[in-house]
Amino acid sequence: MEPCFVLALSGLPDAALAARLCRVLPAAEWQWIQRLHRPEDRLRSLCGRAALRILLAPRLDLPATDIPLCVGPWGKPMLAAPAGSPPSWHFNIAHSTDQVLVGIGRQPLGVDVEACPKQLDHALYRLVTGHIPQPTEQLPNPLDFCRQWVCREAILKACGMGLNAPMGALRLHPSESGWWRVSGLPAAEGLLVRQLWQSTAHCAALCLPDTASWQLQQHDGTSWFYTRI
Description:
4-stranded mixed beta sheet; CATH 3.90.470.20; 27% strand
């Protein structure tokens, strides 16, 4: 089976490159992106969708604009397939600040990237972990917390549930391999998740059904796009 491929792009495009990326998307998809309120959200979404189509085009032997996408039961974008048939490729997109992450593979997968919080408050900690801390309880280091955060979001995205299920219900069981086995929710039972990288600025994670071969490539976003469009 072809390995899972994860593309990490750093840096958002300027106006000239963004105009070129718009031509990689069907008109309806670009119109949907334009409904997002904040300019930076529109740029991140544009980069993620354009990178996805550029990656899928040679794998499907289709022009990037002709790749048929649809929405799953929980709102997760997916590759359209004939009725009763599973998609030939699965994908997931994540972005935060100037980071864009795209994962593609033959099996369902989830990716997430988040900006590491400078400080951790009780409300965010409770939302992510499901644990209600006592007022005097010391919260974990923000970097350690961010690893938990991205892993849990990647798991729910691999299930196609996004934030429609409680992150705090998930249980992560570490191993020496670097992969954590998942339990706690029926849809996530037995999935595997790992951290892709962590810095003081960002943390990222990948979730797969098994530890089949995978690869990560990290690039400057502007340079990567200009070599492909």
